[in-house]
Design brief:
Pfam families: DUF2469 (PF10611). This is DUF2469 domain-containing protein. The protein contains 1 helix and 6 strands, in the order αββββββ. By secondary structure, the protein is of the alpha+beta class. Strands 1, 2, 3, 4, 5 and 6 form a 6-stranded antiparallel sheet that branches. The radius of gyration is 16 Å and the shape is globular.
Length: 104
């Protein structure tokens, strides 16, 4: 496989992923961003924890989530648990956020 073929394949996969995102975003109430992943979910619980030596970390649990990851064969996940020392962003989606430009 040439570098050009690989680039075309990845571009096609990204386009498929965007189209899937566009189709499912209206089903979810929250966007959760972690250092490694981007999730859509209707149920999210974020807990701030600390270790014995005072370091702070985040524990995020989600149910029935969709994961932005073009290399996953199945992007719908029943239960997700993320533990990270990095930033976590949780946003509630407004209904007006669901209006994406149409493909014309």
């Amino acid at each position: 496989m040439s570098a050009e073929d690989l680039e075309k394949y990845e571009t096609d996969m990204e386009l498929q992923l965007y189209r899937e995102y566009r189709d499912v975003v209206g089903l979810f109430a929250y966007v959760v961003e972690t250092e490694r992943r981007f999730y859509l979910t209707n149920s999210v619980d974020l807990q701030v924890r600390s270790t014995d030596n005072g370091e702070v970390f985040f524990e995020v649990t989600m149910q029935d989530a969709w994961v932005w990851d073009m290399y996953r064969p199945a992007r719908f996940v029943k239960n997700v648990r993320v533990v990270t020392f990095k930033d976590v962003n949780v946003e509630e989606l407004a209904k007006s956020d669901f209006e994406l430009p149409s493909d014309q």
